[in-house]
Amino acid sequence: MKLVLVEWVDSHASRGWVTPETLERAAEPLYCRSVGWLLHNRRDCKVVVPHIAGEKNGGMSQVSGDLTIPSKSILKITVLRRR
Q: CA-to-CA distance for 12 and 22, rounded, in angstroms?
């Protein structure tokens, strides 16, 4: 697995009542960055996990904190470390 930095965009919403003018000024995707092990590198999505347990006990037994990001939302993936 590769340790990666994923730069991606996400949707977001306002809270409560807002004016249309406020929404027009804020109308752009939310820029996000995530770091983790690239568990699945599929054509339609990437799955990143920050926590892995059990590797030194005979294999990867568990992962935690999984994040599935649609490939269409990904701006850039930087490999930080290869294993």
A: 14
